[in-house]
## 1
Amino acid sequence: MNSAVIELKDVWVHYDGMPILEGVDLVVEPHDFLGIIGPNGGGKSTLLKVILGLVNPSRGVIKVFGDTPKSARRDIGYLPQYSLFDMEFPMSVWEVVLTGRLGHTGLLKRYSEDDKKAAYDALEEVDMLEYKDRQIGKLSGGQRQRVFIARALAGEPKLLLLDEPTTSIDSIMQEEFYELLNKFKAKMAIVMVSHDISAVSVYVDKIACLNHRLFYHHSKELTSEDLEAAYQCPVDMIAHGVPHRVLKKH
Amino acid sequence: MLELLQYEFVRNAIAAGILASIACGIIGVYVVVKRIVFISGGIAHASFGGIGLGYYLGINPILGVLPFSIASALSMGWVSKRSRLPEDTAIGILWALGMSIGIILVSLTPGYAPDLMTYLFGNILTVPFSDIVLMLILDAVILVVVYSFYKEFLALCFDEEFATVRGVAAERLYLVLLCLIALTVVVLIRVVGVILVIALLTIPAAMSRQFTSNLKKMMLLSIIFGAVFSSGGIWLSYMFDVPSGATIVLVMSVVYLLYSLVKGIGSRGSA
Ligand SMILES: Nc1ncnc2c1ncn2[C@@H]1O[C@H](COP(=O)(O)OP(=O)(O)OP(=O)(O)O)[C@@H](O)[C@H]1O
Ligand SMILES: [Mg+2]
């Protein structure tokens, strides 16, 4: 039986000989909504890139939909933490969102009606339809983030990887965005990296904490030992206000 | 000016100018938006090695350039992505290496090298018909490849990592793009020579960028700018008996600078 969406076994990643991920084991089931928190440099973005096959592990096994990351890419939607691009780049919002469909349209073909419909729907979901002909550089930071979310959704993914999706998004849109993700859970598994522990603790179903090692109990709870080990500081400094939601009582 | 058209060499020159404009209009847009001007300059200059090869083997130097510029494009692309050297260092080394090979091969060739200046600085007024046919074929190849991979190239230029995640073979496609630049260099050598190729690859595209934010329209505009400027340059170089390649580049640069100046003043006024 192989129903897991993501399966990592003892995954190690090194950059220049430095271990970044140390023996990460992780299973994500269909319809999971997993939040990953952790300190800067803890390896969260690296973990997502490993799942996408952009970074090769020095050791360990990675299965996505029971296949290699490269073969599974078609069904993964990805929102990078930083999209570095030239603000002058001559491309419209519409064209950017359509690139989310590249895995579906074959080489040598134009975008189909299905592609256009999916891009249209994705733009509508993030409420950016009216900007569809705007040049991508001529948007505010938050608007651009919404467009990149639409780009990730356009491919109709079965797994959505979000690297700090709500940075620079206003609080109204944030709430709408989390509601939207809740709706998507029926159709896909979601892994979201975030520093916003309070939002994570409200909206996600399961939480993991990553600082080179992954602390995860397949639930929404982390022990204060986990958090202290990961952040290397007392728990109430990290999770003040919401510890009762996240932390196991003991 | 029209009576000039009765001369075959003038007709050939104008045909060469238009064919060159098509190649540099399309590929120049990619060079400018993907910010790979430096690597393109490297490919162009390293191609001089191919000219040396042509002389050494006693064949049409242009036929030496074709394989040589493709090889330098591939090695620059490969080295810039894979080697531990910083990208610009690696390109700088290959740039000089290609030119050195050319100089040594030319000096090893018995006798003297006729037309060497032509390949360095171009002379559109002496393009033979056979080279026009070659330019036509290369233009066709460029058009077909860009038409086929248009959406992939666009995604690649905008966001290489995301394109990769969407299943685009980004590294391979990037090498294809560099090879198209190499072909464009071959097309342009007769017109402006290896030293000035970079001007034709950048100026028309940079100018068209001022008028539109749509890549296809940019290409179209660049082609028109290129054709107009090169025809103007040909005419001036004939009238004043000065080198055609340099005249074309001079016309383009002056128009572009004037335009930027006027636009700069205009926008300051409205601010
Ligand atoms: N391309 C790279 N080359 C070398 N080291 C890298 C590279 N990318 C990341 N690293 C290192 O790997 C570590 C983890 O980086 P990563 O981006 O995964 O952290 P993160 O948890 O996403 O941090 P943040 O919260 O700041 O986004 C960092 O120490 C970083 O210096
Ligand atoms: Mg990160």
Note: DSSP finds ten helices and nine strands in chain A.
## 2
Amino acid sequence: MRVLFKTDYNQDIKFAKHGGYVFWYALLLVAVFLAPVALDTYWVNELTRVLIYALAGLGLMVVTGFTGQVSLGHAAFMAIGAYTHAFLLTQGVPFVFSLPIAALTSGIVGLMIAIPASRMTGLYLTIASLAFAIVVEDLIIHWESVTGGNRGMAVDPPALFGYEIYAAWEYYYIVLVLLIISIALVLNILRSPLGRAMLAIRDSEISAQSLGIRLARTKVLAFFLSAIITGLAGGLFAHFIQFLSPETFGILLSIQLLLMIVVGGLGTVHGAIFGAFLIGLLEASISILKDWLPPAIGTQPGLEPGLFGLILVLFIIFEPEGVYGRWVKLRTFLESFPFYRRNTFKRQRSYLKTERMR
Amino acid sequence: MSFFEIENLSLSFGGVKAVDDASFSMDEGEVFTIVGPNGAGKSTIFNMISSFYAPSHGAIRFKGADITAARADEIARIGIARTFQNIELFEHSTVLQNLLIGREIHNRVPVLRQLIFDPGMRRAELAHRRKVEDVIDFLELAHYRDERIANLPYGVRKKIELGRALCVEPELLLLDEPASGLNPEETEDMGFWIDDIKNDLGISVLMIEHDMSLVNEVSDRVIALNNGRVIASGSAQEVQNHPDVVAAYLGGAA
Ligand SMILES: Nc1ncnc2c1ncn2[C@@H]1O[C@H](COP(=O)(O)OP(=O)(O)OP(=O)(O)O)[C@@H](O)[C@H]1O
Ligand SMILES: [Mg+2]
């Protein structure tokens, strides 16, 4: 069992709480930076996809995992990021400007919908977010001069200061660095007043208010940050898929993002990353499964959403703390063996509190 | 001008007059207690002070200013903190995080600086941490500092909720049944802390409580409420012996 002796309050502010963390995360960093050396192009691409999902999931985590506002419309922020970025590129705006403008555009849209949405709670907010996503999808279909409508839109390859990027490994590094920066910024928020206010609102709006936390402001800021991050992921995704069409960013993607953070573990940064890897694996398995199943079932259009929905429900019922939560339990069990109390984590079920009585 | 007062406060839920033309005023440095049977309207008065409910009639005044129309999130800034009858802690956070949230009103930094977490930001965080540690020492919570609330027993949670309200550094502290659910020893400790809060920290206390031993021990003044009306006021003894109060507790009409 590890006992931490605290000598300095800084210890609680640091990202890495003790030497073990430093070692394992350094190892992980080395591994992700060396991955393209060891893997072939196919796997580098797959890994890039997972990192983009992780970034989008991180964005959703801010609003849903930390602030407790369940959004079923986050694919729309990816769409706004992707289309804005792709459009700006066709207008000759360089990649290094276009990508942040796209992320910020998504953020501003997030801000605008958050202002009315911050008055809603629980299910109403979720339905509103769904409606928002449908409106955005419609807009993309009908705004043909910018988005190409149903015909879709090709995305120019990224170029950094005149140097065009074609190789998978080069793009992988761009995505990786942006993901790491985003994680660091989110972790900073979490150790600051805003992050604590978000967690407070998630658990008890009334006591948060009685302590002086401004509910609407906190929710709006959470939406803003969330939409920026998810919009950034959308911009990166645009290059990854190289061709944008409205159905790419439909309700299925929103469900997938939600599934990711629930399966990974709500309320933690780890959860978003874990979830992205698991969803990546799941997608790969489903495509293998499809070949293997009799065609009558395998080619059903509802197969993927059905499976995603089922897994989401099972996790909410049986493992509300997600895979990361399961891992924390396992680690606690190993560290405290043989003194583990069966009910150490007992009262922590029911995470997704969407409706609350005063 | 009194330190804190409510004047002719009324509020109905549907047909039920939860609070009916209630008035009282308390002085700075007092422990002022509201007693009364279940459903008398005590918590409803607190919820109006917190601006969770708007009274249909009457006014709430703090240090001469009318705060009846203040927003719920302004009350802490005005100098009033509270605890809840059914503990309202942030269940999935640690004790330390809960107490740090109590520093919210003193810790307002531009979001951009929070994102970057510059050295000045770190210094501010450390300063607030020291304030929180003072409260941890005061209530002897050091042992639980890094525990998640969900893992803690009821009595400890009550203490943490009190601690969180103290982190606000209020001038007036509202305690809604601080001793409910506590065993006799814990109740006795609560009495000592309330005394210390008044005498050492100089915070005035407005308390709702059913436990008469605690009421007798700490209260400077007591009022009794029944059916939303103030039916008696005075010392703890006077109120307890008042015939209307006895009748109210026995279930008769007051
Ligand atoms: N939100 C609400 N909606 C409807 N009725 C309410 C609400 N809050 C309180 N009431 C009613 O108002 C009356 C007073 O309730 P209140 O909670 O203030 O009582 P109390 O004096 O705090 O009682 P207790 O000692 O049981 O806590 C009760 O009849 C209660 O049912
Ligand atoms: Mg009550």
Note: Residues 42 and 168 of chain A are 9 Å apart (CA to CA).
